[in-house]
Specification:
Length: about 425
């Protein structure tokens, strides 16, 4: 598959601008929070929308434009959040997300991309197996003092692999989240283990910026390692790992003898079965942000390759499954929050498959921090409009970016991980 295969999709775009907004009609509740594309919202210019990128891609393929700093700005000032894809698919069979990704892949393959800020991240994955330029032997440091099985040497076995991810493993302000999660698993009697220093990057960050060769190398290494461990489930706390394991790895065609589960899905099951019983009151009003990678981007979008069949004599129809983002992990965090005594919960306007991206993904936080901050500030404003005292989420990238926005804007709201609240209530 290549960008060129999607020429018909690019030509079929009717510039309706639906990809800039959450679907109109019953889903839009107010003009303040009708935007769905953070890039269009920040730049207020059509080129930055999903449609604008399709037009730019076609113009580049046809030789009408060259690769300029402006083109790279349009392509990479985007969190690859996929909202444009689900909004466009409401009325078409176009594969906007696939085209945005193929465009990045082609720019990288021809030596124009990714952005300079992405190169240290790519080198870090190549040299250290993580995105934070940290030594491998410090990867399991978050678990120091906890009694957890180490599956890395093949001597110990477990049914569940708890895969922590680069950011929760190394970020000192976030490593209490995997510690709390491991403590909750232990308390519920889960037979689990970790990989410690042998855990590798899931490779979602390199996939997102278009570095396909490195992505495939790491994805295949991870699949082989998970199969070799013989675990039934790979449970992860990180939205990025969850999204790529669930929606991108299966497209590589390798056998995957394990199920992928988000830690919150697993914990919600444990609450449902009575293995964990939240008892302590947590007197707090909260709202929840659905990260793109536990939500619409966790759904498998099997690319069609662009081929079309002729229906009714002349009507071109693509053989592609309608994927509208419904199959994300939306219920588990809400079930956990609902189980916590005394907690008050209100929804924002843009939720579930129409969640507004925090702005951090797709390499945007490192290359365009102003863009990431603008998207996060917009989302914090929406969270504030619910009257909540805390903005709850379950993704390390969202948490860091929201914390930056709260610091920058001085908004009187806390950013909290679902696991912290669940641990308090136990
Ligand atoms: S990409 Fe889809 S939603 Fe956006 S302008 Fe084109 S046809 Fe409309
Ligand atoms: S992926 Fe997200 S940020 Fe990028 S163009 Fe689409 S809606 Fe906008």
């Amino acid at each position: 598959m290549a960008l060129e295969d999607y020429r018909n999709d690019m030509m079929r775009c009717v510039r309706c601008s639906s990809c800039k907004f959450i679907p109109l009609g019953s889903i839009v509740k107010s003009w303040q929070f009708a935007y769905g594309c953070p890039a269009s919202k920040q730049m207020n210019f059509h080129s930055y929308s999903g449609s604008g990128k399709l037009i730019a891609a076609l113009s580049w393929l046809d030789g009408r434009i060259g690769v300029t700093p402006e083109l790279l700005d349009v392509v990479y000032r985007c969190s690859l959040c996929g909202l444009c894809d689900v909004s466009c698919r409401m009325g078409t069979d176009m594969e906007v997300y696939e085209i945005l990704h193929q465009l990045r892949k082609k720019l990288v393959a021809e030596g124009h991309g990714p952005m300079p800020a992405h190169k240290p991240v790519i080198e870090s994955v190549r040299n250290y197996d993580n995105v934070w330029v940290q030594p491998r032997n410090r990867r399991g440091r978050w678990a120091k003092g906890l009694s957890v099985k180490d599956l890395s040497k093949g001597k110990e076995k477990a049914e569940v692999l708890y895969f922590v991810g680069c950011t929760y493993s190394y970020a000192s302000d976030l490593m209490h989240i995997p510690r709390l999660t491991a403590e909750l698993f232990t308390r519920a009697g889960v037979d689990f283990g970790i990989l410690g220093a042998r855990e590798l990057c899931c490779a979602s960050p390199v996939y997102m910026v278009g570095q396909q060769d490195l992505y495939e190398e790491y994805a295949k290494k991870n699949i082989a390692m998970f199969n070799e461990l013989g675990v039934k489930k790979v449970v992860t706390s990180c939205a990025g790992c969850y999204g790529v394991f669930r929606s991108k790895y299966p497209l590589l065609g390798e056998d995957m003898d394990f199920e992928v589960v988000h830690a919150e899905e697993y914990l919600a099951e444990l609450i449902g079965s009575g293995a964990l019983v939240p008892k302590n009151k947590v007197d707090l009003s909260v709202t929840f942000h659905d990260p793109c990678h536990t939500g619409r981007m966790a759904e498998i979008r099997a690319p069609s390759g662009g081929g079309e069949e002729c229906h009714l004599g002349c009507l071109p129809v693509k053989n592609v499954e309608k994927v509208l983002g419904f199959d994300g992990s939306y219920d588990a965090p809400r079930e956990i929050l609902a189980a916590i005594p005394q907690m008050k919960f209100s929804e924002m306007e843009r939720i579930r498959e129409y969640s507004f991206c925090c702005g951090s993904g797709g390499g945007a936080k490192s290359a365009f921090p102003d863009f990431a901050l603008s998207a996060a500030s917009d989302r914090v404003e929406e969270a504030m409009s619910t009257g909540a005292e805390a903005l709850v989420t379950n993704c390390p990238w969202c948490e860091k970016n929201f914390a930056d926005a709260v610091r920058e804007t001085g908004a009187p709201i806390r950013v909290v991980d679902t696991i912290e609240l669940l641990a308090q209530s136990l």
